[in-house]
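re: that chain from earlier
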Amino acid sequence: MKTHWAANELEVRAAEALRSLLEEVSAVKLKEMKRESPARGRAAEILAYVDIYGHSHTLACEVNADTRPTMVRASIRKLRDCASHLAGETTLVLIAPYLSPEAQTLCKESHAGFLDLEGNARLSLGQVFIGKRSMHVHPAA
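^ sequence. v structure.
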């Protein structure tokens, strides 16, 4: 039960971090944010619907504490599958407690956005690009 609670807490913190990041950009208006249950067969755990200069955009987000390269690739594959079922322009986003430079590079190479709870973010939302880098030094794993 503790694992479920920890995963749920991480999803709540991830949703709050995403909301906070989007609120920093005046061109982005958050219309709705939904937490989805992976048990219902959905890959995206958070779906955020935003308006950017009058255009609708969806962020399909996977929350994952395990950011080893194989898990990052698996998360992006799951998100791609989910995005293929969503209408309109969609950005894939991996959210984690911390994403190493290697994990960030994997996201960039896969054209997926990322956000970590350390303050690093990279999202490309049509006409808007959001980039943040934390000055926090994370110990090598």
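The chain has a mean pLDDT of 87.
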